[in-house]
Amino acid sequence: MAVERKVYVLYTGGTFGMKKDDDGKLAPQTLDVIKDFIIRHTILYERKKGESDENVWNRIVTKDGLITLYHQLAEDDPKAKSQKYKVLYRMDSLPTPIDSSNVTPKDWSDMAEKIKEHMGVYDGFVIIHGTDTMAFTSSALSFILGKINKPVIVTGAQMPIFHPRTDGLDNFVGSMLMAGYFCDREMLHQVMLYDLNKLYQGNRVVKFDCDSFSVFDSPNVFPIASLETTIKLYEHKMVEPIFPPSLKSKAFTRAETPEVRILRFFPGITENYVRGILVGADGVILETYGSGNVPDVAWLKECLTEADKRGVLMLNCTQVYRGTVLPIYATFEAHVIPGYDITPEAAMTKMIWVLNSGFNPETKRKILKHSLYGESCAPPYSPLLPNVEPGEREQTPE
Fold first, then answer.
1. pLDDT digits over 326-375, tens only?
2. Given this model, what pLDDT does residue 386 score?
3. For residue 248, what are the contacts with CB-CB under 8 A and spacing of at least 6?
4. Domain ranges of the chain
5. Are 297 and 259 within 8 A, CB to CB?
6. Would you tell me the crossing angle of helices 134-145 and 344-355 to the nearest 10 degrees?
7. Can you give the residue ranges of the Asparaginase/glutaminase C-terminal domain (predicted)?
8. 225-227 and 216-217 as β-strands: parallel, antiparallel, unpaired?
9. Taking the model in full, what pTM does it have?
10. Which residue of 95, 177, 307, 391 sits 20 to 30 Å from the alpha carbon of 237, by its own alpha carbon?
11. Phi, psi of 315 (to 5 degrees)
């Protein structure tokens, strides 16, 4: 008897599910249209000799709407092949699919709630998402979901699945393969991002190319897996995440999103410019030169020191594509926290998460100084939350 695995697929929007309208512009399609297309694509590989499309459809789609994943994929996993794995999946969507450039922290919470709602029923999860802000979403979900025991994979496309040259179907199939057939691999029990035959740690990726099918990269750590003619899992190269107990995803759904800003340094930066960003901010991501350098001028140190006294949390990240901010530069005299090799996307989402955590300022600083879910090479702090001293929590998250 086949071993069944179930995957929950959440369609959130993006190029993946778009098709040109009568005016030649890309327009989002309904979930039913997308599902119908994917099922018909599956039929091409599942049809037995003499079978009609209708017969194949009835065989691969269950009465309650679960779709059978391509059987041939089992050949890529010796364990799945020997135990005759059968992967079924259900496709769902947000109430209103959106272009990823319109994504907000509220949407991250909605996605997380969908995952948590189905966590006990499914063995793996795939989120279809636009590529523009996909790295922000995969980073945010890593903090919202916290420690999980099932794979959550975010993927998308540069060209719609309805186009003959689409990359979307390959990304979908690869994600489903890892979320379904490889769901019991403990190293995959985290939030990840899949793009062009590579599986990355979700809070370690950046979008570096908008013109090619190779869209994402992980500048400072190796991919988790490579899906070429053979599938390779790089367990020995993976930076082991440190998993403290997670806060609930409602941390992203409070009445107001905290005021988090980016201060990117450039030659000739002025005091007025810096003050304009620091004043009124709750948290600031500093994108500095090299390994954390900033101009050696008195007014800058004064600005940063004043911001620190106002309770502004500041995290120093390099604006260089690959590298590490070291805790040895002048910014740290003003209590600017070194971000080590955290990406700008992970820095931003972690800052929002921390500011909404309900802990007092000192505890928030402690959290920012450490790597919680493998997002940087900063010193690990585990277990984190149980070590919080009495009185350090401002309020208990609901």
1. 876 556 667 899 999 999 999 999 999 999 887 888 888 988 999 989 99
2. 43
3. 397, 398
4. 3-237, 249-387
5. no
6. 40
7. 260-367
8. unpaired
9. 0.91
10. 177
11. -120, 125
Q: For the segment 26-51, what is each residue's pLDDT rounded down to a tens digit?
A: 888 999 999 999 999 999 999 999 99
Q: Residue count of the chain, please give it.
A: 398
Rounded to the nearest angstrom, the gap between the alpha carbon of residue 362 and the centroid of all alpha carbons in its chain is: 27
Instruction: Say whether 249-387 and 3-237 share the same fold.
Output: yes
Active-site position among 131, 133, 253, 324: 131
Q: Is 100 helix (H, G, I), strand (E, B) or coil?
A: helix
Q: Is residue 178 within 8 Å of 194, Cβ to Cβ?
A: yes
Q: Which CATH superfamily is domain 3-237 in?
A: L-asparaginase, N-terminal domain (3.40.50.1170)
Structure tokens that stand for 335 in this block: 């209590």
Helices (H) and strands (E) in the chain, counts: 10, 17
* 131 noted as active-site residue: yes
Cα–Cα distance measured from residue 243 to residue 171, given in angstroms and rounded to the nearest whole number: 28
Mean pLDDT of 225-232: 93
Tokens describing residue 65? 């709407």
pLDDT of residue 115: 96
